[in-house]
Amino acid sequence: MAVLSMPPNVHAAAAVFIDLFVCGMLDGNGAPVLTTDNQVVVTNNARGNGKVSCFADVTPSASGHAVHWDYENTGMLCQTLAGATTRWQEVVSTSGDAILQCNTPD
């Protein structure tokens, strides 16, 4: 399950960078991973649009190929400061570099 949760005080800021944040992601085989080996960037503009990005090292796919996860192929929501969204994607490279991006509103 790709789930992010953030402290409530980050919502008021226009842009926030958080280091050593717990981020829920999927590894290259679809297994859930919680990691603090990441960086999270939260942005929020005047129209209420937001973006959460999380970067981490995870177990690469056993297939040896890069993998793409999103709502369409997992059925999972990404929980953000602005609520749950279906607008997310995670890419896991062949070496296990993972990037998760969630966009709000849905």
Q: Give the N-to-C terminal Cα separation.
A: 17 Å
Number of domains: 1
Strand order of the largest sheet: 1-4-5-10-9-6
DSSP summary: helix tally: 1
Shape: globular
Report the mean per-residue pLDDT as an integer: 81
Please report the total strand number as a whole number. Answer: 10
Report the helical percentage.
under 10%
Poorly predicted regions: 4-11
- Supply the helix-strand structural class: mainly beta
Query: What share of residues are in beta strands?
Result: over 45%
Largest sheet: 6 strands, antiparallel
Order of helices and strands: EEEEEEHEEEE
* Rounded Rg: 13 Å
Description of the structure:
The chain has 106 residues and is mainly beta. It has one domain. Helix content is 4%, strand content 47%. The protein has 1 helix and 10 strands. The chain is globular.
Distinctive features:
single chain, 106 residues, mainly beta, 1 helix, 4% helix
Structure at a glance:
The protein is mainly β. The chain has 1 helix and 10 strands, in the order ββββββαββββ.
SSE order and pairing:
Blueprint: E1 15-19, E2 23-26, E3 32-35, E4 39-44, E5 50-57, E6 67-70, H1 71-74, E7 78-80, E8 83-85, E9 88-92, E10 97-104
Antiparallel strand pairs: 1-4, 2-3, 4-5, 5-10, 6-9, 7-8, 9-10
